[in-house]
């Protein structure tokens, strides 16, 4: 049984879907949820789901990413995770941190990578006149949003879409995609999958 740690920064909706999926014959179980924000609403959701949680406030480490990551690593390593899932974790991790978990960190990003790494993905897709947007789950590497893709879901961009309306529809599909990719990854299957909006 694989042990899964999840890092969040906000409400944790993808974290909730991951935790809820890890039951029954699933090859993994959640062992801890962490955040860089002690006020993140997702921490209370994790506790409600009986998953231990912690927070390391990144604002206590101004200009000291290494110090923040050292503090983050302490409870993470104590939980002995086999897989680390980033689920709306809004901090860029250093190469040293990523290499510690090399080949074992997953991230979900709200675009059809390699298009639109970084922020404001939905606005950028609309402004480019794209017919589709979506989300990608990928392995994390030291290069931002550039690791091997493990799964994608495609969502049509509708006439009149705003970044907000598109984001809401993409998020609903992220909730389908991430649990499916995690299950396959925990079974040792890294072949990429593609879903279409339900």
Automatic annotation (TrEMBL):
Belongs to the GART family. This is Phosphoribosylglycinamide formyltransferase. Signal peptide: none annotated. GO terms for cellular component: cytosol. (6R)-10-formyltetrahydrofolate binds at residues 65, 90-93, 107. Pathway: Purine metabolism; IMP biosynthesis via de novo pathway; N(2)-formyl-N(1)-(5-phospho-D-ribosyl)glycinamide from N(1)-(5-phospho-D-ribosyl)glycinamide (10-formyl THF route): step 1/1. It catalyses: N(1)-(5-phospho-beta-D-ribosyl)glycinamide + (6R)-10-formyltetrahydrofolate = N(2)-formyl-N(1)-(5-phospho-beta-D-ribosyl)glycinamide + (6S)-5,6,7,8-tetrahydrofolate + H(+). One of its GO terms (biological process) is 'de novo' IMP biosynthetic process. The active site is at residue 109. It comes from Paracoccus thiocyanatus. Catalyzes the transfer of a formyl group from 10-formyltetrahydrofolate to 5-phospho-ribosyl-glycinamide (GAR), producing 5-phospho-ribosyl-N-formylglycinamide (FGAR) and tetrahydrofolate. It comes from the Bacteria. PANTHER family: PHOSPHORIBOSYLGLYCINAMIDE FORMYLTRANSFERASE. N(1)-(5-phospho-beta-D-ribosyl)glycinamide binds at residues 12-14. Its EC number is 2.1.2.2. The record marks 145 as: Raises pKa of active site His. Pfam families: Formyl_trans_N. The keyword Transferase applies. Residues 2-182 form the Formyl transferase N-terminal domain. Keywords: Purine biosynthesis, Transferase. One of its GO terms (molecular function) is phosphoribosylglycinamide formyltransferase activity.
């Amino acid at each position: 049984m694989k042990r899964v740690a999840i890092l969040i920064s906000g409400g944790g909706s993808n974290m909730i879907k991951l935790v809820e999926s890890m039951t029954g014959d699933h090859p993994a179980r959640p062992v801890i949820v962490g955040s860089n924000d002690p006020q993140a609403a997702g921490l209370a959701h994790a506790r409600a789901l009986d998953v231990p949680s912690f927070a390391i406030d990144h604002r206590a480490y101004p200009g000291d990413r290494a110090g923040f990551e050292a503090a983050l690593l302490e409870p993470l390593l104590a939980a002995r995770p086999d897989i680390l899932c980033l689920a709306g974790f809004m901090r860029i991790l250093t190469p040293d941190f990523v290499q510690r978990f090399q080949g074992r960190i997953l991230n979900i990003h709200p675009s059809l990578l390699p298009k639109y790494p970084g922020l404001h993905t939905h606005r950028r897709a609309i402004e480019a006149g794209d017919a589709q947007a979506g989300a990608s789950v990928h392995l994390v590497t030291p290069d931002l949003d550039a690791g091997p893709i493990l799964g994608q879901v495609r969502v049509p961009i509708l006439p009149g879409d705003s970044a907000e309306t598109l984001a809401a529809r993409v998020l609903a599909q992220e909730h389908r995609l991430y649990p499916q990719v995690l299950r396959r990854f925990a079974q040792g299957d890294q072949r990429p999958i593609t879903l279409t909006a339900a």
